[in-house]
User: Fold this.
Amino acid sequence: DMEPDDIFGWDLPEALRKPSPYPLKTILEKYGFRPEELLVVDDMKLAWDMAHPLGVKVAFAGWGRKDFPELTKEMTALCDYAFSTPEALKQFLFEEESL
Assistant:
């Protein structure tokens, strides 16, 4: 029953969507976050291109890219975190709550 607050999809002009930093800049400004409070989770380098210049960390969602070892290798090297399953990402995101 969750609905996103904002969607920055492919229906926007190219200059306003990934890999442009516009979506993240908008989120930072609109909601008052700092770059270290955000985490971009994606399976493509465009996300890294968008987040890295702003100092926002990126997690590679590797579970959908198991048939692409070169991409997995590149993203694992580039990203701050890499997860091979959604469960591993969930554990990372919510491990503090269980302490």
Remarks:
- The helical segments are 22-31, 45-51, 69-78, 86-94.
